[in-house]
Design brief:
The complex is a heterodimer. Helix content of chain A is 0%, strand content 53%. In chain A, strands 2, 4, 5, 9, 10 and 11 form a 6-stranded mixed β-sheet that branches. Chain A has a 5-stranded antiparallel β-sheet with strand order 1-3-8-7-6, with no helix packed on it. By secondary structure, chain A is mainly β. Chain B is an all-beta fold. In chain B, 0% of the residues lie in helices and 51% in strands. Chain B has no helices and 11 strands. In chain B, a hairpin with a 7-residue loop joins β9 and β10. The chains are: A mainly beta, B mainly beta. Chains A and B meet through β5, β9 and β10 of A and β5 and β10 of B.
Chain lengths: 105, 113
């Protein structure tokens, strides 16, 4: 099993702040997926990163895949309450435990 | 387009009963995945199926759990003789082909009393 470690586990910030969450592993992945899950719902796919060093942007969210394809980060600019949720990274059907983000007005 | 559908959304069973969870993939998707989620453990892969075939069941408990994806109809996750430790949210996901990009259903929350 290829383990994915996500940090921080919990994050509480105010609206307008920036934040970065991390997904790390000792294994190399052909791709990593990021999902967001809201309470009582299933995860929703945000992005797939494939190439080492790749950067993808989705509005205020910036995803980066590490050069060695072992880690990834998600940066959110000017967080909004609608960004609240559990952010999960997934490599080869192995999910990290997620970062639970709370953005307060 | 309808997304992945799961039913029931909530299921209560007494210890020893059987639980049947259903999953209808997105239209055009022939690959189905089942996961179990517990607050302390995160989302855990159970089984990956294509139509009429189990491709990977490495995450499935050896006893009491089974899954199928028949040629016609939804995928079924079956748990026999449920115990309290089976209480969890069970999610189904589907993909168009062999892909790690999955589309999840809303989940079935199983409570064993």
């Amino acid at each position: 099993t290829q383990l994915l470690e996500q940090s921080p586990q919990f994050l509480s910030i105010q609206e307008g702040e920036n934040l970065t969450v991390y997904c790390n592993s000792s294994s190399v992945f052909s791709s990593l997926q990021w999902y967001r899950q809201e309470p009582g719902e299933g995860p929703v796919l945000l992005v797939t990163v494939v190439t080492g060093g790749e950067v993808k942007k989705l509005k205020r969210l910036t995803f980066q895949f590490g050069d060695a394809r072992k880690d990834s980060s998600l940066h959110i600019t000017a967080a909004q309450p609608g960004d609240t949720g559990l952010y999960l990274c997934d490599g080869a059907l192995n999910f990290g435990k997620g970062t639970s983000l709370l953005v307060t007005p | 387009n309808a997304g992945v559908m799961q039913n029931p959304r909530h299921l209560v069973r007494r210890r020893g009963q059987e639980a049947r969870l259903r999953c209808s993939p997105m239209k055009g998707h022939s690959h189905v995945y089942w996961y179990r989620q517990l607050p302390e453990e995160g989302l855990k892969f159970m089984v990956y199926l294509q139509k009429e075939n189990i491709i990977d069941e490495s995450g499935m408990p050896k006893e009491r759990f089974s899954a199928e994806f028949p040629k016609e109809g939804p995928s079924i996750l079956r748990i026999q003789q449920v115990v309290r430790g089976d209480s969890a949210a069970y999610f189904c996901a589907s993909s168009e082909g062999l892909s790690y990009e999955q589309y999840f259903g809303p989940g079935t929350r199983l409570t064993v009393t």
